[in-house]
Design goal:
Elements: H1 2-18, H2 24-40, H3 43-47, E1 57-64, H4 74-106, E2 108-113, E3 116-121, E4 128-130, E5 136-140, H5 146-157, H6 160-173, H7 178-201, H8 206-218, H9 235-244, H10 255-273, E6 279-280, E7 287-288, E8 291-294, H11 302-306, E9 311-319, E10 325-332, H12 336-347, E11 350-352, E12 355-356, E13 359-360, E14 362-372
Parallel strand pairs: 1-14, 3-5, 6-14
Antiparallel strand pairs: 2-3, 4-5, 7-12, 8-11, 9-10, 9-14, 12-13
Length: 374
């Protein structure tokens, strides 16, 4: 899964670089689609139908209590670490949304402006656009200049609150992956530039708009805290340069282009979420079952020895073309520690892969690990 995510976001970065002469709106679309595809990567494992394998190769091995004690379950720790990190990151984003929702709730409703709902907050409040189903623009009671309004209006028109949720979901799910955070930062930077472009094409004079932007930063209306410096420039510097560059492409994304891009993304998503190659059964005609080449005996844990636990752990595995056990799952558990040791031992085994009509294939197998006390 990590390899697929890395591939998707690396390809996204390459496409965004190739489109560096295009508008910020186009590059934002590319980064957002890349993050969306990354979120689809684990979907294949969740929606793929379960394959029932009534007939499998069966292997049996034993472990005695005299064997050395195994190390802790690193896989379980990694799984809980991922869950903890995802929850913490999601809570951080949720806290930001909660604060925005509170500000919106406390602000007074005002007349719509350019067809967009507006709420008035206390003087000095930083203008922002927020919403889940529908955007609301919050403005300070002391008013804002036209360039600032045009920028916030652009956020509302572009439905940027939806695209932000995609970035935040990806960062929460894959918090450990640096490319995901890089893609989210790039999407945020391009999102702000796209709104700058709409404000300028909507009537703002570039020089005046840049001056207002700088003054807003000086007065405490800071840029989003998640925006970070790129290539030695602050986001503000990069935005001002783009605002004052008359050669910059400021076109918005057209619906036909969005439809084509979405179609391409769907086409790319199909192999990403596609099922793995077929798993064969030993009852099939022409199938040569796999056989063990080398194996590691599982170890007793000290806790199981002290508790005098004995019995068997039954595992369902798939023996792939590389001669290793994959997708190891517990069919009949015994004890948490012994279950883990059985899995780790079997994953270290090597096999002569099974063959179907002379071709190496993936074969289902069952491993019975017997733990006995001496």
């Amino acid at each position: 899964m990590i390899f697929k995510i890395t591939f998707v976001l690396s390809a996204t970065a390459a496409i965004a670089f190739a489109l560096r002469r295009s508008s910020a709106a186009v590059r934002h679309m590319v980064w957002t689609l890349g993050l969306s595809l990354a979120l689809l990567v684990p979907l294949g494992a969740w929606i793929a139908p379960v394959v029932t394998l009534p007939a499998a190769v069966r292997f049996v091995t034993e472990s005695a209590a005299a064997t050395a004690v195994a190390s802790a379950d690193s896989f379980a720790w990694a799984r809980w670490l991922w869950i903890a990190g995802a929850v913490l990151v999601a809570l951080r984003f949720a806290a930001g949304h909660a604060r925005a929702a509170m500000l919106v709730g406390r602000a007074e409703a005002a007349a719509n402006r350019d067809g967009i709902p507006v709420r008035i907050a206390a003087a000095g409040t930083m203008p922002f656009t927020w919403g889940l189903l529908r955007s609301v623009v919050v403005l300070p009671s002391d008013g804002v200049s036209d360039p600032i309004w045009l920028h916030e209006r652009a956020h509302a028109e572009r439905r940027d609150h939806w695209w932000l949720l995609i970035s935040q979901t990806a960062c929460s799910a894959f918090w450990f992956h640096p490319l995901v955070w890089f893609a989210a930062r790039q999407a945020e930077a391009e999102r702000e530039r796209a709104c700058d472009d709409l404000a300028i094409t909507g009537g703002s004079v570039p020089e005046s708009y840049a001056e207002v932007l700088v003054e807003a930063a000086r007065s405490g209306m800071a840029l989003p805290s998640s925006a970070m410096a790129v290539a030695g420039q602050t986001p503000l510097e990069a935005r001002v340069r783009a605002i004052l560059d008359g050669s910059v492409n400021r076109r918005r994304v057209s619906w036909p282009l969005l439809a084509v891009a979405a179609g391409c993304a769907v086409a790319l998503a199909i192999p990403l979420v596609a099922q793995e190659p077929r798993i064969h059964s030993v009852k099939e005609d022409g199938l040569t079952p796999p056989r063990i080449k080398s194996k590691v005996e599982p170890a007793y844990t000290q806790e199981a020895r002290d508790a005098k636990i004995s019995g068997k752990v039954v595992l369902n595995i798939e023996i792939h073309e590389d001669g290793k056990a994959h997708n190891v799952k517990i069919k009949e558990p015994l004890d948490a520690g012994l279950d883990v040791n059985a899995i780790r031992a079997v994953e270290a085994w090597t096999f002569e892969p099974g063959k179907k009509d002379g071709k190496v294939v993936r074969v289902a197998a069952t491993v019975e690990v017997n733990f006995r006390l001496l």
